[in-house]
Amino acid sequence: MSGNKYWSKIVGELDPYVPGEQPKLSNLVKLNTNENPYGPSPKVLDAISASLDDDLRLYPDPNGDLLKQAIARFYGLNVSQIFLGNGSDEVLAHIFQALLKHKNPILFPDITYSFYPVYCGLYQVPFERVSLAEDLTLQVEDYNKANGGIIFPNPNAPTGRLLPLAEIEGLLQSNQDSVVVVDEAYIDFGGESAITLVDRHPNLLVVQTLSKSRSLAGLRVGFAVGHPSLIEALERVKNSFNSYPLDRLAIVGGVAAFDDKDYFQKTCEAVICSREKLASELSALGFQVLPSAANFVFVSHPKYNAADLSAGLREQGIIVRHFKQARIDQYLRITIGRPEQNKQLLDVLAVLLGYL
Asked: How does pLDDT run across 157-194, given as a tens digit for each residue?
């Protein structure tokens, strides 16, 4: 542990999150960070351009009311059910502080988004990892025990596996004394959002982001949906931390993204179509491909080491994500790219696997 005499005690104890590599090299096929291969709606760019004026000298709306109203229109909600933040990671940070810090440990899968244990370390939240099944599916019955809250992505990351809404509802009914947080960063690529359940379950909080399905990873917009009492807790924490979380451009860009439903549906369908095609072609190369409802696939090959395949792809200018974590160190997570990027990936893999 490195250290400095000026550090707070907790700093040296942290194990910070390591984001996916963002290389500065040109001409790369970048399939490692689950960004959308298609750009944002042209209406988003127009809205942002129209807001580049003298009003940037003014603080933004601290409540982000225009964006809350756009989200409410899209999902048929009340604005009192919506919380905004700088990307879903900031929303999650406030959730860990406001709703998950209790005596009992919170529960999340052993194979999941690696920011969860980081937040537990930062905010001193006790936690317990719950093992996924051998096929990397989440078993809701394993969460029927004393807890300070439950959190998991749906679809899960990095596996891409989807938990059906009926099972989520069963989980909510079995844990009525705790908050259940469903992290839906990838839900628009093949699942049905648990937002449809929030009016029936006051212990449900759903988190989404505009980084993936709405192609706005560079704008940093996230939100949570739940019972107004849960939202109030988040607002209290937010206003004790940063009362102006979203800037003017993020707000107007987010509004335009939600209002352009046609573009949103078209790009999601394009990614889904490419995912199914890529999964089939990877299977033909001998890969074992987990069922995915996300904008990525999680794959392993019974005859080839995942780290070696990742290195071989990198040498040819293609970057995918390899995790060294136990249980999944022989898997690669591959973001769905544009059709020509996917073909380039497959061509290089065919050479590495000896097919060409």
From this structure: 999 999 999 999 999 999 999 999 999 999 999 999 99
Q: d(Cα 266, Cα 344) in Å, to the nearest integer?
A: 23
* Single-letter amino acid code for the residue at 238: K
Class of domain 11-39+262-352: alpha beta
Secondary structure string (H, E, C) spanning 1-53: CCCCCCCCCCHHHCCCCCCCCCCCCCCCEECCCCCCCCCCCHHHHHHHHHCCC
Q: Residue 55: in which H helix or E strand, if any?
A: none
Fold of 42-260: Aspartate Aminotransferase; domain 2 (3.40.640)
Alpha carbons 160 and 112: distance in angstroms, whole number: 10
Alpha-helical segments (H) within the chain? 42-50, 65-75, 87-99, 115-123, 165-174, 228-238, 248-259, 261-284, 306-315, 339-352
271: left (phi over 0), alpha (psi -120 to 50) or beta: alpha
